[in-house]
Specification:
alpha+beta, seven-stranded antiparallel beta sheet, 3 helices, 17 strands
């Protein structure tokens, strides 16, 4: 049976799969997503891990990432050798039975996770392996939106056969290039200054605001107003008003008013979608637990 009190919170490797006695090993990963703006649209997610042991030439199928549903802690446990069997848990480690040793228990031994995998891949010789797919996009989108709490993923190997475990570099790996990596591509949220209540449509009141700026022969920055601007000349040290789009001269032209009127309820065409990619390396205190994680 799996060792209820073994952990590997700070070792250089994490293990997933089964040992020669069919005891399961599971690895947990967590990435901070603070650099992604709220309401961003996630377009692609790639989770990359590095298998590090030479000699395991056979590809093992059915390595899966499952979204975790409970808070856990990495902890200080740091076993010697190949780290497959972990070490007696320290306070703050995660184990097969504890999400946070020795207080918070998993609801189900082995971790609390969503049954349907978010992604899967086969793993063989020492190399980098990428997990992708719509399931990962859905997970990250739900975390960015706040619909689900971000507890990361569990990496599970083939647990119906013996000796399927593979070691992967952890966030404590001595070679930084081997550490787990999450690549997230997203479209930042579009905010249109004239849509002052962020309703996703431009009301008559908001159109009249643009007309007001036209009639005043310009506008300037003014904190505390409904949109951050005021008619007439003044300071110009804030973000450019969206209706002042061509040229951006702190004045609203008749042509710009006509564009505003044609927009009606659609804002998507006003600002070009800007594509960014964020490489999110797991911080040293957030990558995974157990043997590594759950031994």
């Amino acid at each position: 049976a799996e060792d209820a009190n073994a952990a590997n919170g700070s070792g250089e490797t994490v293990w997933a799969g089964t040992d020669a006695n069919s005891n399961a090993r599971r690895a947990l990963f967590h990435f901070a997503l603070d650099t992604i703006p709220a309401n961003a649209i996630i377009t692609n997610v790639e989770f990359e891990v590095t298998a590090i042991t030479e000699g395991l030439e056979t590809f093992c199928p059915n390595f899966e990432l499952h979204r975790l549903t409970r808070t856990w802690s990495e902890g200080p446990g740091n076993p010697e050798g190949d780290e497959l069997n972990g070490i007696d848990a320290f306070i703050g480690d995660a184990t097969w039975t504890h999400a946070i040793y020795s207080g918070s228990l998993w609801t189900t031994p082995g971790g609390d996770w969503v049954g349907a995998p978010s992604s899967g891949n086969s793993v063989g010789p020492a190399a980098k392996y990428a997990f992708t797919g719509p399931g990962l996009i859905e997970d990250v989108q739900s975390w960015v939106d706040g619909a689900q709490d971000n507890h990361g993923w569990g990496l599970f190997g083939l647990e119906t056969h013996e000796d399927t475990a593979r070691p992967f570099a952890s966030s404590e790996a001595s070679k930084p290039s081997f550490r787990p990596l999450l690549r997230v591509s997203y479209t930042p949220p579009v905010h249109v200054a004239m849509d002052t209540n962020d309703s996703g449509s431009i009301s008559l009141t908001e159109v009249l605001r643009v007309v007001q700026f036209y009639n005043s022969n310009g506008f300037h920055c003014q904190a505390g107003t409904e949109d951050g601007y005021a008619p007439g000349p003044g300071t110009e040290d804030c973000a450019q008003y969206t209706a002042d789009y061509t040229p951006q001269d702190w004045r609203v032209s008749l042509g710009e008013i006509r564009l505003t009127g044609r927009l009606g309820g659609a804002l998507a065409g006003l600002l070009g979608a800007h594509f960014r990619a964020a490489d999110l390396a797991a911080p040293d205190n957030l990558s995974r637990f157990g043997a590594h994680g759950l031994a």
